[in-house]
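Q: Study each token:
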Amino acid sequence: MAADRRRLIVVSNRGPVVHGRDDAGRLVARRGGGGLVTALDSLAAEHDVIWIASALSDEDRVVAAEAGGAFEERSRSGSAFRLRLLDHDREAYARYYNVVANPVLWFIQHGLWDASQPPVAGERLEEAWTTGYAIVNRSFADAVLSELEADPDATVFFHDYHLYLAPRMVRDQAPDATLAHFVHIPWVGADVWSVLPAHIREAIHEGLLANDLAGFHSERWRRSFAEACVSLAGAEAEGTTILQAGRRTATTAHPISVDPAEFDALATSGPVLEREGRIRTDQDEKLVVRVDRTDPSKNILRGLEAFELLLERHPEHRGRVRMVALLDPSRQDIAEYASYTASIVRLAAAVNARAGAPVVDLRIEDDFPLSVAAYKQYDVLLVNPTADGLNLVAKEGPLINERDGVLVLSRGAGAADELGRWAVTVDPLDVSGQAEALHHALVMPAAERRARLEGIRAQVREHDISRWVAALMADLDRIAAGRRG
């Protein structure tokens, strides 16, 4: 084994594959999407990986039961890794995921908690926290501990808001383990966390401080975490290190990225080429494209309002500009998400009715090749979340765009810290400002459009997913060297 090759235990709620059935009823593994799954290609190629995740489908549970532990899988590039799927109690998982993780933690950390509305609090939250979130985190921690018994020198790499308690649970029983946790969503200040009961918000911060390393996509999220730890967990900040209860936790900021070679290949693949005809019908027409999940944090309603305002204020764009909104339905079994999706459908229909023409082409479906086809054809890419840990759409689209498209990017996205100099940046709550940003992008001189696109493209190609993985591994190496010193 090479000296720099690590043994990694990757831990996340969603794994790299979900099992299902094909038309013939045969068990098949379907590859997941997203930055974390893409990162596995680099991890599995360069390190020995076991991935622990939740069994999310009935077929996942069948596979987990038959395997009786971890079984071999392969990354997209063909590198081997082991996958261990956890079959949680279904009621506990529902409380963990549908009551705590998404309606509460996701909303709080994306600035969407509405203090004027009745919160998920009191006995319901306490019960879901104790008999759901804590139970599922315990299940993950026990699985990690069993892997550490077999390999105490492995590094544990937790991911995201689903697993805030697990690191402390592992640390209590494996005090010398090397633990890291990457948070893929924004971190908010102590005042925002105050909507939660004191013992819950303290447990969240203390759980993350059980790690040797806590990582974020943006320096502002890292800074917010440090400030919240000082305020809520009685910690001290010493540069980028946080000291609490005799432990030192290093904090770092590395924006995740994509694999440019993967998108180069996708752009010329059969499914994408076939779908390009579904996107563009008139070469004189300009397209404003957005590609999102239907999460409330994606700010889709204000984006639709801004597009309508663009056409009202600048009638020269009428009949010449169309919005294509490709939305992946997200968490529709959670009331807040289903309601938001319904609001999107209603508003898009209303905009079209008022315009007297189908100026908004709304498609709510899981069709990634269609999104890639739209990336190639946009004149303006609208990415306007209220808040995002990063936002990979802002990186994916410019890589393969063929029309010198302009990125209109919310300052609330972590990606704005990295790409803002080449984008037209907007306040996510300012509908008027977004309308003017769209106009500015549409009438921008060709040379400026090309320069901005090439700037983003060069940044993303240089700072790709492999570089993100390497930066995190280098952080862990420094921590290990400090221990030896």
